[in-house]
Every structure is written in structure tokens, then in C-alpha cells.
Known about the structure:
Layout: E1 13-16, E2 28-32, E3 40-42, E4 56-62, H1 70-83, E5 84-95, H2 97-112, H3 118-132, H4 138-146, H5 149-159, H6 161-168, H7 181-193, H8 196-208, H9 220-229, E6 233-238, H10 248-251, E7 266-272
Parallel strand pairs: 1-2, 1-4, 2-3, 4-5
Antiparallel strand pairs: 5-7, 6-7
Amino acid sequence: MARSHTDAPGRRYLNLGCGRRFSKAPEWTNIDIRSSHDRVIAHDLADGIPFPDGTFDVVYHSNMLEHLDRAAAEGLLRECCRVLKPGGLCRVGVPDMEDIARIYLDELEQRAAGGPANRHEWMVIEMIDQMVRHEPGGAMAEYIRSHGPADVEYAVERAGNVARQVGARPAPPSRPPAPSLRARIGRALRRWLLSESELRALEVGIYRTAGEPHLWMYDRCTLGALLNACGFVELSIRAYNESAIPGWSSHALDADPDGREHAPDTLYMEARKPESASGPAR
Length: 282
């Protein structure tokens, strides 16, 4: 039987890039770039993790690392190692590139043999849309809004309630609301300084660096190699409801309220900071 999170008195856990998936339990510290609750600290992790060396027993983040470029991802994992106590555990979740690629190839073969196109269409979107999109929701949202229940159910099977949430975003209005005076002045100044193509490039660049697109992808080998390079040892692949963290299921961070996996296309990996005080190479 899973132990309650109260079975670990005095332990300190850190949840990075939590968004709205955070724990209110006293042992958890939650950080995101914007605070959605008084239990969430607003902090930009590009500036590092704002705690001293050896503060936490556990550092956790899921579906965040892929939104950083490779250098920033390595920097963040080194910071995770720094703030862990010797022997502390890091749990990382990322979209599983291996799983996505295998299923894409299966659906490609079925489509090439005359099967239906929609599952193959979704797998192409799942593989590349968040790496290339220039607008919120991208092709994922359009697919879910424009396809029938059976196709949407397949998307949810692949991406979990994340797919439903993306599809629930309203379509862009045919007539956007009138911008504020400040926005109109800012746009007029940009139009005066920039050509149409330069203005579009600026808008895309702002979106591409705002956190929604994927800037890299990982499989079990590349994620493991990165964790090793950042000083971690004892790597293990885990299920969404399995962990060396005491009472993991009771924290409900990788599961929805109904107990199902929140993001089924996720690879979960855990690793430890060595017991020795040497830490990762700088």
C-alpha cells in the first residue's frame, strides 16, 4: 500500500515549472515563472534555482525540460543537482521521442497499406507541431477542433488531458477585440520602425521564446546521458505512478484526479545525486 506523503517528516521536495500542477503539502516548494496560487513561487528559472546548495531531498519537473534549448536544459539539471542533498533524487518527465517515433512508424505503415489517415495525421502533429508552431495551440488545437469524437479520443489516448485542454482553447476570433491604446501606440511604433516581414518575425520570435514550443526532444539514451553529464547516478525509468519518492501516488502530480496518467506520451526518469560531496563537474 502506498504511504502517505506525511510518512516523510522533515523532508523537502521541489517542483519546478509546475504551472497549475502543484502540491499543497507542506514538504513541497512549487516554482513557476508566474504564480497561480499562494503556494507557487514566481521565479524565472533562467536565473537559476533560488535556494542554497543541498536544500532538497527531491527535485521534480515534468514536461518542462523540452521547452528549453540544450544549453539551458543542461544548466537547469546542474542546478537541480546543486540544490539536492547528497543522495537526493531528481525525477524528470519529458515527451518520449522513442515512443512517439515508433508509433508514428506504425501508423505510417497502416496508412500506406490503405488504412485511415487520421491516426497518422495525429502522429505527425504530435511529433513536430510543438517544435515548429508559431501560434498558441498550433496544429494540435486545429486537429482536435476539426475532427470527430473517435479521432479526438485517439489524441487523448496519446496525449492525455493535455490534448483536451489544447482543444478547449477557443479558436481565434474572426474579428479580434479592439486593442488598448497602449497596444495601438506600440504597434504603430513597430510598424514605423519595421517592415511587415520584420514585424512578423518579431511576433514569431516573441512567441517562440515565451515557453510553449518544444526546443528539443529526448529519448531514454539522450536524457540519461544528460543526467549523467550533470552529475547524477543510479538512473532508472519509471511509470507515472511508480517512484522511489515515498508515497509518490499520493502527491498526484503525474496523474489526473481520476487516477489516469496526465500525459501518457511521457518518459519518466529518476536519478540520484551521489552521496559524496564532490557534486557535478562545472
